[in-house]
């Protein structure tokens, strides 16, 4: 135990479903430990610009099922400069904040690490991103909801694909990581999944389409992560059209629909559990880490390790999906 009295929580980077559930858990766990909790609005921008105010129990009533983040989120260039961080530190001192809970993705944790190193200020992280691209947690907060959003959209597209013998090329979020494409592709029975982690051999996809057409099955779903090396759904459509000019091919880019919506039960449970563990961790003197869940065990992973490790992706799911789509 240490003499922690005041903590502050903020959300940063892209919003993700379950961020509100995590904020609620932080505030309520703070109450449990007799801490005063403050909310910082608009991520790092709010620390630099002093958008800091108390978060009471009433402020987090009924926010558990809400998508987005009541604290708003932002990307902040100023925090990337020493002057910006100096201002941020001054504001935290002004409000007598002893420690921070940062909810966000790899950029957020990179910023937290730099800040901690400069000012020796305790920060603990919660993985809040739909991308699932953080090492040290099986799932990030928002990923499950995003996957479910994609799956329900693809189910609708499949109806039309089948009825009209069409090929739908569905582009999902994932600039650097294919987690969303992989899991939603498997769950929606995609014929092919293209992700940044593997080199795309477009000939394989064309051969597969050729085979389907020879079997008189001309509907298909192709799932493409936006960061795939072939260049995204529009590029895939171009080459499919060139090779099969008579095939009716459509691109659907799901875009920001994947970031919003009420969190799934899974994300609510994950966010609540990790939010609780973050505050408990701070009370016990733990900082400089992201709180994750691995094999249902809580893990504290140093920020450095949580960032940019994509080796947890299970590529076997891609081959299984493609075998099942034969
Ligand atoms: P998402 O995964 O949804 O994109 P993220 O946390 O990775 O979320 P970013 O926009 O990359 O989102 O980062 C959030 C903020 O973290 C940035 O706007 C910036 O203020 C801060 N940040 C990122 N990198 C650094 C850095 N090297 N130094 C200081 N601050 C940083």
Task: Pick out its properties.
326 residues; Rossmann fold; 2 domains; 7-stranded mixed beta sheet; 41% helix; 18% strand; elongated
Write up this protein:
The protein folds into two domains: 6-142 and 263-308, Rossmann fold, CATH 3.40.50.450; 145-259, 3-Layer(aba) Sandwich (Rossmann fold). It has eleven helices and eleven strands. The longest helix is centred in the middle third of the chain and has 22 residues, at 143-164. Strands 3-2-1-4-5-10-11 form a seven-stranded mixed β-sheet, with helices on both faces. Strands 7-8-6-9 form a four-stranded parallel β-sheet, with helices on both faces. The protein is of the alpha/beta class. Bound molecules: adenosine-5'-triphosphate (ATP). The site of adenosine-5'-triphosphate (ATP) has 18 residues, from helix 4.
